[in-house]
Amino acid sequence: LRSHPRKRPTCGGWPKRWRFCSELMDLFQVRIGEGPPTVVLHGGPGADHEYLRPGFDVLAEQRTLIFYAQRGGGRSPVPRETAVGWHEHVSDLETLRQSWGLERLSIAGYSWGALLAMLYATEHPERVERLALVSPAPAWREARDRFEREFARRNLDPALQAQRADLRASGLRETDPDAYARRVFELSVVPYFYDASRVRSLTAFRVNGRTQQEVWSSLGDYDLRPALARLAVPATVLYGESDPIPRDSAEAVATALGAPFHVLPRCGHVPYVEALDAFGRILGEFLPG
């Protein structure tokens, strides 16, 4: 395994962008900031790291943030025959750790990325220094099923359905396809927010459906709570009070890890947009810097 830096401007002494290459994958990576490293794991599964920015960049003031696009998402595509289940994602992170020359990882995981951080910690507990879990995806299957039902309920809200109907009738698709696509995206993520107007501040992204489906299928009837309770790693959990993910799911993760549970008022699933000051303060004080 080799890391091939591109000839680009540096940021904090590190190549600003490069690709991680191996026989099986080509994972796109970005580092910003200067100081002790924190690995940032994006959500999805099958999304990309770009939609965490610029919000997550507030954490780069005192540390180096390592973003990478996980296999099967964004700028890290893989052939269709390449497996993209949770085992492969955990293996990728461990391989990356070795390539970076880091003995242990401080990880900030968001949504599915928080669940990936938990999976990695249960598989490689000796390689984890700290876990910052932001809006963590449910740690057991039944809680995930409840999340899906709640998201579907919000998605069928009559007012939201009316906005979609108005958009379809507006003619914007023909007159300004880019603006139309942006508005379609915004209306698709409204159920994640406390304040619907804040969707305009979220960087648009797409999810690779095959990757998303394979990851969740690979987890089966999972329950990480017993394994998390056996870990001895400093952790913190952030949760927006209006998140469609069940509160008891995130709180159970904090309890299992013996971690503080920070509930953010007037905030949904995206605290780095809706509660940026609290997000930056809590994580900034917790992560090495």
Please provide a written account of the structure.
With 289 residues, the chain is an alpha/beta fold. Helix content is 39%, strand content 19%. It contains eleven helices and eleven strands. It has helices at residues 86-100, 112-123, 141-155, 158-169, 172-175, 177-189, 209-219, 225-229, 247-257, 271-274, 276-286; strands spanning 2-5, 10-11, 14-15, 17-21, 26-33, 37-41, 64-68, 105-110, 128-134, 235-240, 261-264. The strands form two sheets. The protein has a nine-stranded mixed beta sheet with strand order 1-4-5-7-6-8-9-10-11, sandwiched between helices. A two-stranded antiparallel sheet has the order 2-3.
Distance between the termini: 29 Å
Helical percentage: 25-40%
**Could you describe the largest sheet, including whether it forms a barrel?**
9 strands, mixed
Which strands sit side by side, in order, in the main sheet? 1-4-5-7-6-8-9-10-11
Mean pLDDT: 92
DSSP strand content? 15-25%
Order of helices and strands: EEEEEEEHEHEHHHHHHEHEHH
Q: What is this entry, summarized?
A:
With 289 residues, the chain is of the alpha/beta class.
Characteristics of this structure?
single chain; 289 residues; alpha/beta; nine-stranded mixed beta sheet; two-stranded antiparallel sheet
